[in-house]
Each structure stands twice: as C-alpha cells, then as structure tokens.
C-alpha cells in the first residue's frame, strides 16, 4: 500500500463522509462529554512500518472511553493468563447495550462491554488503585510510542458523579464472586482508564502495533504477546462495536473498537491501524461519521480481512 494512494483515498472518504456532519448526538450521560465541539473530526492511519497519514483535528485530546477496554484486556491477560481471565468473563457477543447489567449471568458476556471491562480491571495487578492506574498509563504510552498521554480529570470527576450504572455493575459482580477485590476501587480504576486523554495519532499507533502482531513498528520489540494480540483482535471483531458488531463486521470487515468520546480504532492485520474521531454517536454509542468513513476505506483501500 503506497502512502500517496492511501492519502488520496482517505481524502475522498473524508469528503464523502461530510454528508454525515450534524447527524447523531454527542454522549451526554457523562455531562463533561457534552462540552466538546460535536463536529470535531480527525482521522489517522499508521502503517505497520510507521508511515502515516494524519487528517483533520490531529491535536485535539479526547477521552479514550471504551477503547480503554482493549488495554484493560491486554493487561489482564498479561497479568493473569487466559485461563484465569476467561474464568471471570465470557467470550461471546451480546445483543444488549454496552452498559447493560443484563449480559451478566454467572459472569459478563465479554471483556468489551462495561461489565466485562470492570471485570478485567479487577484483574490488573498493583498494590493499590494509583499503582494499577500508573501501569495502565505506562502501557498506553508504551503502545502509542508517546509520552504525551494525559489524564482528563474533569471527565473522570463527571463520570464518577454520574456512573450509578457502573457502580451497580461493580457491586453486582462483587456479590457473585467475580470481582474478588474492593468494588469501589475497581470502579475507580475503570473510570480512570476511560478518562485517559489521547489524540488520533496515538490511538492509530496503538492500532498499528496490534496490526503488527504486537511488535513495535521499528520491529525491534515484542510489546504485546502474540497470543494476547490474537485473543484481543478476535474479541474486537466479535464484540468491539457492541450490539452492532455483526452488522459492522459485515459492512466494514476488520476488528474495531469504539468509545463514547467519539473515537473508533480499527486494526487491519499486517497492514495498518486507523483511528477516526467524530463525537456524534448512533444509539449503540458508535461514532456515525467514523463508522461511515471506515466503511468507505474498507472498500477503496481493499482492507476487508475476509475477501
Ligand atoms: O462506562 C461508560 O459508560 C463510559 N466510560 C465508556 C462507555 C463507552 O465508551 C461506550 N462506547 N462506545
């Protein structure tokens, strides 16, 4: 894939995605998220050799939100191994919304919904919440090849004040023995992780490392174990876009993960990582313009992994 061609096709896709400007709503159930410009827009594509194209709002920092669930899962798998992790959380998609309490029977359906990520957060090692969170920050810095990763305190405070649903999920998981440590601490770590501030290039770089089988883009270091990458990408393909995951996979054709901050990351194994940022969401909590742009470049850049 020649970088010039990529840039041309991306420009075309950005242009045609303009018809979605103004469609959808920004998330407001976390009040601070409603304070962004709804029409912010950016896209970054990073090839597995480190070449990249950045378009639009490349300097805006937004909260990572549910894309942190990918990081939570990676760290939980590295810290505890897959047997332990999947004794606590399932591997199957669910038809319910991302913050529903319903997909929990004996455990959460999968690690990429709230209940599942609260579970994986409970498995992250560290003496206390501060140490665990600093390990998460280090991981994000390491995988994004950037030191400039921030903590968005206003977003954190806003979610902590309003997140009764996640609090009830954490307490419920504790009551059925899935969470073994303090439920408030687990919730705190989960919300802190969602409040990490990133930009499009940093997320696209993380996506590119995943596309590179977990290797750094200079090829020198295995940053994530291959088995962990394999599990993570499979779950992103099956569950990364919530109750829309099947339809999205048919239309777009590569593993992705969305966040209510407005970003989507997409992994095209062996080729590139992509991050779109556009805060207006559909009813599943996925960015509308981002999704449409990814659908278009899947075709024009021939990125669908199935054909
Ligand atoms: O827990 C929440 O509801 C948010 N912090 C994250 C949800 C989210 O990003 C859903 N994704 N599209």
Low-pLDDT ranges:
none
Structural class: alpha+beta
- The number of domains: 1
Which ions, cofactors or small ligands are bound in this entry?
6-diazenyl-5-OXO-L-norleucine
How big a fraction of the residues is strand?
Answer: 5-15%
CATH superfamily: DD-peptidase/beta-lactamase superfamily
What would CATH call the class? Alpha Beta
Oligomer: single chain
Architecture per CATH nomenclature, i.e. the level-2 architecture: 3-Layer(aba) Sandwich
Please tell me how large the radius of gyration is. 18 Å
Description:
With 307 residues, the protein is of the alpha+beta class. It has one domain: 3-Layer(aba) Sandwich (Beta-lactamase). The chain has twelve helices and eight strands. The strands form two sheets. A five-stranded antiparallel sheet has the order 2-1-8-7-6. Helix 2 (68-80) runs parallel beside helix 4 (114-123). The chain is globular, with a radius of gyration of 18 Å. The structure holds 6-diazenyl-5-OXO-L-norleucine. Residues 65-66, 98-99, 114, 159, 166, 194, 258-260, 285 line the site of 6-diazenyl-5-OXO-L-norleucine.
List descriptors:
307 residues; alpha+beta; binds 6-diazenyl-5-OXO-L-norleucine; single chain; Beta-lactamase; 46% helix; 12 helices; 8 strands
Summarize the structure.
The chain is of the alpha+beta class. Helix content is about 45%, strand content about 10%.
Topology overview:
Elements (H helix, E strand, L loop, with lengths): L2 H15 L24 E6 L4 E5 L5 E2 L4 H13 L1 H7 L25 H10 L5 H16 L5 E2 L1 H10 L1 H12 L7 H12 L1 E3 L1 H12 L14 H14 L5 H7 L4 E3 L4 E6 L3 E6 L10 H13 L7
Antiparallel strand pairs: 1-2, 1-8, 3-5, 4-5, 6-7, 7-8
Helix pairs in contact: 1-12, 2-3, 2-4, 2-10, 4-7, 4-8, 5-8, 6-8, 7-8
């Amino acid at each position: 894939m020649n970088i010039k061609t990529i840039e041309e096709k991306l420009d075309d896709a950005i242009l045609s995605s303009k018809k979605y400007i103004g469609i959808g709503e920004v998330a407001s159930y976390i009040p601070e998220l409603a304070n962004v410009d709804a029409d912010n827009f950016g896209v970054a594509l990073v090839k597995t050799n480190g070449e990249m194209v950045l378009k639009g709002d490349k300097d805006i920092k937004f909260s990572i939100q549910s894309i942190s669930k990918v990081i939570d899962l990676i760290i939980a798998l590295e810290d505890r191994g897959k047997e332990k992790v999947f004794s606590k959380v399932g591997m199957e998609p669910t038809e319910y919304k991302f913050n529903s309490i319903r997909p929990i029977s004996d455990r959460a359906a999968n690690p990429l919904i709230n209940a599942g990520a609260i579970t994986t957060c409970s498995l992250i090692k560290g003496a206390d919440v501060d140490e665990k969170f600093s390990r998460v920050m280090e991981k994000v810095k390491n995988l994004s090849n950037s030191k400039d990763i921030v903590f968005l305190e206003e977003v954190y405070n806003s979610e902590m004040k309003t997140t009764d649903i996640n609090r009830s999920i954490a307490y419920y998981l504790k009551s059925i023995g899935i969470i073994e440590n303090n439920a408030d601490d687990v919730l705190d770590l989960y919300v802190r992780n969602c409040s990490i501030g990133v930009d499009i290039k940093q997320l696209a770089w993380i996506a590119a490392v995943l596309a590179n089988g977990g290797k750094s883009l200079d090829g020198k270091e295995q940053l994530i174990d291959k088995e962990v990458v394999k599990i993570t990408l499979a779950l992103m393909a099956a569950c990364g876009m919530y109750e829309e995951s099947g339809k999205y996979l048919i239309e777009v054709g590569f593993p992705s993960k969305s966040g209510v901050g407005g970003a989507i990351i997409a992994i095209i194994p062996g080729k590139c990582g992509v991050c779109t940022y556009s805060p207006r969401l559909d009813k599943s909590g996925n960015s509308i313009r981002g999704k449409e742009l990814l659908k278009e470049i899947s075709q024009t850049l021939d990125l669908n992994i199935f054909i």
